[in-house]
Specification:
Alpha-Beta Plaits, 2 domains, disordered N terminus, 10 strands, alpha+beta, elongated, 4-stranded antiparallel β-sheet, 4 helices, 27% helix, single chain, Translation Initiation Factor IF3, 6-stranded antiparallel β-sheet
Length: 230
C-alpha cells in the first residue's frame, strides 16, 4: 500500500439502496444496503496517441515517404529518453485517395507511455519529427488494481457503517453478513485521432509546447451487502 499512501485522494460516499426484508421460510429479517466510494488521485502515467498521414502520392512514393517519417518519429522519441517498450504501434495502412487518380496515402499511429510532466514535451518532439495527427491523452496510473482496491475498501467500510447505523436506528441488532457484491466504474476519455494538415511542426520551425494539464484519475466502487438483523 506504499503506492496508495503517496496518492492524494478524495472520497465521496452515498447510499443507493436501503431495505429491510423478512424471509418467511426461516423468519429471518435482513437489511440490505448499498454504498459507493470514489477515489481521485494524480496520474503517474500519460498515454499519448501520435501518428502521421503522408501527402497524396503514387503508391511507391507514399510508402517511401511513410517509411522515412515512421523511422524519424520513433527515433526522435527514443532519443528523448522514451524506451522501446513504451512505444507501441497501433495501426498502419496504405490507402487509395479516390478523389485523385492513382494517388495513395500511408498512415501510421502509435501509443507512447510517458511521465505526465513530459506529455507536452514528447508530443512536441514527435510533431517536429513529422507527426501530424494526435488524439486524446489518456491519464492513468500504473497500479490500477491498487486504486480499485482503495475505492473498494472504502465502499465496504461505508456499507457496514451504514448498516450498523440503520439497524441501531430501527432498534435492531446487526447480525452476520449474508451476501455481498461489488462493481467498479471509471470515467474514460476517448477521442478519434485529430489530424493537422500542412506541415505542422515542420523541422526548424520555432514553436511553443501545448499547455497541457493532467486531470485526476478516478475509480468508483459500489458495494451492496445483505445483513441479518435481530
Amino acid at each position: 500500500m506504499r503506492f496508495l499512501a503517496s496518492l492524494a485522494s478524495i472520497a465521496v460516499a452515498s447510499i443507493f439502496l436501503t431495505s429491510c426484508t423478512q424471509h418467511p421460510a426461516n423468519n429471518q429479517r435482513t437489511l440490505t444496503v448499498s454504498a459507493t466510494e470514489s477515489v481521485n488521485v494524480e496520474p503517474d502515467l500519460a498515454i499519448l496517441h501520435i501518428g502521421f498521414d503522408t501527402p497524396a502520392e503514387d503508391v511507391k512514393s507514399a510508402h517511401a515517404d511513410g517509411a522515412r517519417k515512421s523511422n524519424a518519429i520513433v527515433a526522435a522519441v527514443k532519443q528523448a529518453g522514451i524506451t522501446e517498450n513504451n512505444i507501441r504501434s497501433q495501426s498502419q495502412y496504405l490507402y487509395r485517395v479516390w478523389s485523385e487518380e492513382h494517388k495513395f496515402k500511408l498512415a501510421q499511429q502509435w501509443t507512447v507511455d510517458v511521465p505526465p510532466q513530459r506529455a507536452a514535451e514528447i508530443l512536441d518532439i514527435a510533431i517536429s519529427a513529422g507527426a501530424n495527427s494526435s488524439g486524446q491523452i489518456e491519464w492513468t496510473v500504473k497500479n490500477q488494481k491498487a486504486l480499485e482496491n482503495q475505492a473498494l475498501d472504502r465502499a465496504a467500510a461505508r456499507a457496514k457503517e451504514n448498516a450498523s447505523v440503520l439497524a441501531n436506528g430501527m432498534g435492531a441488532h446487526l447480525g452476520i453478513l449474508m451476501s455481498v457484491s461489488n462493481q467498479f466504474s471509471a470515467a474514460r476519455f476517448s477521442m478519434p485521432m485529430m489530424q493537422a494538415g500542412g506541415g505542422l511542426g515542420s523541422a526548424g520551425a520555432a514553436s511553443l509546447q501545448l499547455a497541457i494539464e493532467p486531470h485526476k484519475v478516478s475509480r468508483e466502487a459500489t458495494v451492496s451487502a445483505v445483513f441479518a438483523i435481530e
